[in-house]
Amino acid sequence: MQFFSGFSLKNESYLFQEYLNKSDYSVSGFSYGAIKAFNYVNEQLASGKRVDTLQLISPAFFQRKAQKFKKLQLLAYSKNELAYMNQFMNSCFEPYEKKIVEHVQTTKEELEELLNYEWDFEALQMLVDKGVKLEVYLAQEDKVIDVRGAKEFFLQVSTLTYIKSANHFLQTS
Fold first, then answer.
1. pLDDT confidence of residue 100
2. Is 171 a member of any domain?
């Protein structure tokens, strides 16, 4: 199994053990990592490699958010990266207790990519048509992504698991 971490994170896959498909032919990505996982699967299939399952866990979904929201996020990050990242992590774990997660250095360009990424419905449908099982996991209490928009979008092309009372990390307590 190949796992792609969320924005500013590494080694957080332990938080999703109950959901992860550990097959050699499975690819998973959390939040920003969902974008990376999707791109990776497309590359693998283009080079003739086998992928059976793509799991998108709390995929970064901001395509229905206003440009003003995105500009404010980038401005806050540019002004004080540490304060922004602390607030971001708090939002990820709300309303539950923070778990231990490891961090990596981030860039404004990565945040910009995350905020401005547009999921391509036709490309997702092509993966499904090629036999890739697409699984999406969303959390009702996610304070980070546009859950409603993501639910409406991904429900059309995936098996969607909607976890009531869960946060961005799919925690329910």
1. 85
2. no
